Amino acid sequence: MPPFGISTMRFTGTYTAIVTPFKNGKIDEPALERLIKSQIKGGVDGIVPVGTTGESATVDYEEHIRIIALSVKFAAGKIKVMAGTGGNSTKEAIYLTQEAEKAGADGSLQVAPYYNKPTQEGLFQHFHAVARCTKLPIILYSIPGRCGIEIAVDTVNRLAHDSVNIVGIKEAGGNPDRVSQLRAALGVKFTILSGDDSLTLPFMAVGAQGVVSVASNVIPREMAHLVKAAAMGKHDVALKLHDKFYPLFKYLFIETNPGPVKAALAMMGMMEEEFRLPLVPISAANRERLRKTMKACGVIK
């Protein structure tokens, strides 16, 4: 088998799972530009457009591709664009990934197929097929809470050795032991990113190399600082930041993502708080809890 991780592009550090701003039912392109520019200024390593936080499930194909193209344009080569192009249909995932490659994305985030619950062999064949159809580096995305299945460590290992452009995984199963298992099986060249802000520090302590963050929509500089401190072994600095913003990490998930983070960004004047059904704004009570938490953390006055 060929060695894995041959791609020269690494996806370590802080990647913001960027929201998709809407206004009057359409993509709010000026708001997306403002948001991406704030990420560049904040020092993150990249953005992930049209993932879960970007409401990929409620945009059509044309909008999906447009959001990726806009993200590439607004990033302007200053930060990486890891496009969310997964799907529960292999044909759909291939199409979106190829379009993302044409649009100039730097990599692809491939979520485990959801709802249809394929076997591990089905998962292998799905990701294998996608990897064969693109030159983009691929980050797998295991999130059993949303997909109903986990990409098994053995399957990740098999994929990494089968496809040279499968270079990492976003691990969102909430279990640090999985990070240790993945690291033992795949070594340090295969990138592991935390899929949960509150677990970034514990995951990095056992071998993860960064995070795909929701919180960095709101606090990009602080999340980038936390991850860099952890990567440099400055545990005290990283822990201080973790402790300060831990309440925000939790309250940004007080209701279904991306409801709270869009509410937070609206409070900051970054965008309209608009969703597409079946997603709806968070409750008034939770909005007030989130507002108080943001004030306590120094995000707003």
Write up this protein.
The chain is α/β, with parallel strands linked by helices and 301 residues long. The chain has a single domain (13-234), classed as Aldolase class I (TIM Barrel, Alpha-Beta Barrel), CATH 3.20.20.70. Helices cover 46% and strands 13% of the residues. It has 12 helices and 10 strands. The chain has helices spanning 29-42, 61-75, 90-103, 120-132, 144-147, 153-162, 176-186, 200-205, 220-231, 235-251, 259-267, 284-296, and strands spanning 13-16, 22-23, 26-27, 46-47, 80-84, 107-111, 138-142, 166-171, 191-194, 210-213. An 8-stranded parallel β-sheet has the order 9-8-7-6-5-4-1-10. It has a two-stranded antiparallel sheet with strand order 2-3. Helix 2 (61-75) links the parallel strand 4 and strand 5. The longest helix is centred in the last third of the chain and has 17 residues, at 235-251. The N and C termini lie far apart (56 Å).
Strand content: 5-15%
**CATH top level label:** Alpha Beta
- How are helices and strands ordered from N to C? EEEHEHEHEHEHHEHEHEHHHH
| Domains, number | 1
Distance between the termini: 56 Å
Topology:
Blueprint: E1 13-16, E2 22-23, E3 26-27, H1 29-42, E4 46-47, H2 61-75, E5 80-84, H3 90-103, E6 107-111, H4 120-132, E7 138-142, H5 144-147, H6 153-162, E8 166-171, H7 176-186, E9 191-194, H8 200-205, E10 210-213, H9 220-231, H10 235-251, H11 259-267, H12 284-296
Parallel strand pairs: 1-4, 1-10, 4-5, 5-6, 6-7, 7-8, 8-9
Antiparallel strand pairs: 2-3
